[in-house]
Amino acid sequence: MSTLEPLLGRRAKAGAGTPRKRAKGRAVWEEQPTFVGQFGKGAVLTVVVLAVVLPLYAIILTSVSSEGAINRAGGSLVLVPDGLSFAAYREIFSNGVVTRAVVVSFAITAVGTFVSMALSILCAYGLSRARSVGHRFFLAAMIFTMFFSGGLIPSFLVVTQLHGYDQYWALILPSCISVFNILIMRGFYQATARDLVDAARIDGAGDWRILWSVVLPTTKAVTAVMTLFYAVGYWGSWFNTLLYMPFDNNKWPLSYVLYEYVNVGAKMPGLDTAGSGAAVQHQAASPFAISMAVVVLTLLPILIVYPFLQKHFTKGMLTGAIKG
Amino acid sequence: MAVMADSAAVPEEARPGPQAPLRERGGGDQAPVKQRRISFRVRLRRDKSLLVMVIPTMLVLLVFNYLPMFGTVSAFEYYDPIYGFFHSNFIGMQNFNQLFADSAFWHAFQNTLVLSLVQLILYFPVPIALAILLNTVLSTKLRSFIQAVVYLPHFFSWVLVITIFNQMLGGAGLLNQFLRQHHMATWDIMTNGGMFKYLITFQAVWKEAGWGIIVFLAALAAIDPALYESAAVDGAGRWRRMWHITLPGMRGMIVLMLVLRLGNALNVGFEQMLIQRQAVGPQHAEVLDTFAYYYGVTGNNFGYGAAAGLFKGVISLILIYAANKAAHRLGEDGLYRK
Questions:
Q1: Residue B308 and residue B292 in contact, taking contact as beta carbons nearer than 8 Å
Q2: Is there a contact between B1 and A27 if contact means CB atoms under 8 Å apart?
Q3: A52–B56: do the CB atoms touch at under 8 Å?
Q4: For B251-299, how does the pLDDT look when each residue is reduced to its tens digit (9 = 90+)?
Q5: Phi, then psi, of A65 in degrees rounded to 5
Q6: Disulfide check for B31: which of B35, B47, B260, B325 has CB 3.0–4.6 Å away?
Q7: Interface pTM, i.e. ipTM
């Protein structure tokens, strides 16, 4: 395909998906590593891994720590398990704002991902056959949007002119298409074995049938990866809420709740999260634990889905990009 | 099945020979001699389900990408939401004249460039170095574990990343808690205006550098191992091999990523700035995007914000073009081929 090839094509053709073929240990011609070199490498990689893992560990641990444990840690993140308590989660789930936000976020993610994937799959397949009518024009029209946009204000004005203000569709539709994702999917569809497609065609299958029964079953990896990309995008989407729905906290998704009550530090109705104001009576958990519990809620779905898809996407991304 | 019959009658696989490139648009009558003539109507019927598949996406793009492009007309208007694009007062270049005389705008522009430059210098080499380092790890298990860990932050939203940074480096965060407990001076990085450009870059490294290594690992995997072997046999040490084999092998990818980065020079992390603008103050965190947002959406001065956005869009387009030209000069493809 013409578009991604210049992006990623010719340079990394040979066997990029699989690591370079190598003897089990070190190649015979290679010199033995120095102790300093090995140590330095190990240290750097350990720091890199810890930089990601440590904050997540501390935040998750703090969210399930008792008020005493947090106080003993000086009111900041808890690093050593010291008195567990799930009070923070009980508090936020008995409070309407967060519970509603979780439901809203899941709904937006589900609907948005479905819309995005449906549009993307159809479009990618629709453009995957060389010399179909108009495919050059459509491709060019898509790629142009990657390089030039009208800018933030005109987009905002268009959506508000279409009465999208305070509407859930405004959180989904304006950013539901990723041209880049479509181009990658298209690369995969083009790489689907020609023989299979031809056989299906001779057996009397039309394009819808071929897409559904031949192409999709053979490209499950890229479907999984793209679903993850879109879903993660919707789950974390915050800016569209800021633009189109900034005032009605009954409608906010979780990421905006995280922003408003944890990041900005506004006071959550019925719950003290800021820790500054007078503590709400009957509140069993420390404000800080409650904040961290909200963080964990936004984190958790990603952490749960990630291990299942991680293998897929490294492979999927690369082969897709390289086959281009 | 009509479509079926057509496609059976007209083998679309009939690939044109290299000497007879088929014109892709403009109908069948332009097909070269060897190719069977296919009328446009036949092709339309053959491809109609493909067209039906493409149309929904095109409609979405039309409404949410192309309408806003025509909506940039608001940059030349005293835009009033009541009158919309068509009936607002057209004021010509007045927004731009005002913009170019506005020191706040030039300050935002300068911030954008400085942040972009700092990110280029401090962020750009990190994924390359990390990829080379990771590539030397022999154990596949360990390597894929490290990869899984460093890719993870890419999937976090900026709100989440900044919250995490607040808890680690902020005034009440882990670092300062540690400093306090050991009776040292505290250091609130999150609200420190002078440090802001480095903070931003550090956040970008934390979130995206791991993900950025994917393409470089692919480039590394494509290097022929025999090159290393023969170089070693010829007496090249590991540093010479890195300089003469590894880095040249990554050159194409590095240039490509550089082109992408330069073309995106004016995009310096909109959400990042927006979320942290309060904490460090606009004089440090105002960039072109936030300028457009605050004047346009918050300040209701839509025409003015749109003018700032259009300025940015046009400069970006020029940058992409220039970066590609530079890549072609270097003998690389860039985003598109010469």
A1: yes
A2: no
A3: no
A4: 888 988 888 888 888 888 889 999 998 888 888 889 999 999 999 888 8
A5: -95, 150
A6: B35
A7: 0.83
Convert the pLDDT of each residue in A224-257 to its tens digit: 889 999 999 999 999 999 999 988 888 899 999 8
Q: Quick one: how far is CA A291 from the chain centroid?
A: 22
Place of tokens 């050991």: B182
A133 touches chain B (CB under 8 A): yes
Backbone angles phi and psi of A101, in degrees to 5: -65, -35
Looking at domain A96-323, which CATH architecture does it have?
A: Orthogonal Bundle (1.10)
pLDDT at B246 (0 to 100): 93
Per DSSP, the residues of B78-147 read E--TTTHHHHSEE-TTHHHHHHHT-HHHHHHHHHHHHHHHHHHHHTTHHHHHHHHHHHT---HHHHHHHH
pLDDT, one tens digit per residue, over B226-238 is 999 899 889 888 8
| Helix (H) or strand (E) segment spanning residue A53 | helix A35-63
Contacts of residue B65, defined as CB under 8 A and 6 or more positions apart, other chains included, come to A145, A149, A150
Contacts of residue B136 in chain A, CB cutoff 8 Å? 41
The CATH number of B101-329, from 3.90.930.1, 1.20.58.760, 1.10.3720.10, 3.40.1550.10, is 1.10.3720.10
**Does residue A77 contact residue B167 with C-beta atoms inside 8 Å?**
yes
Mark yes or no for CB contact B157/A202 under 8 Å.
no
User: What are the CA-CA distances from residue A279 to residues A92, A262, A287 (Å)?
Assistant: 15, 16, 8
The predicted model gives A81-86 an average pLDDT of: 83
Percentage with pLDDT > 90 across chain A: 37
Separation of alpha carbons B296 and B311, rounded Å: 14
> For testing the chain A interface, which of B3, B135, B162, B174 should be mutated: the one with the most A CBs within 10 Å?
B174
Domain ranges of chain B: 2-65, 101-329
Counted across chains A and B, CB pairs separated by less than 8 A come out at 347
Q: Tell me what the pLDDT averaged over chain B comes to.
A: 84
Looking up tokens 């300068």, which residue turns up?
A: B110
Residue B132's nearest CA partner among B220, B6, B15 is B220
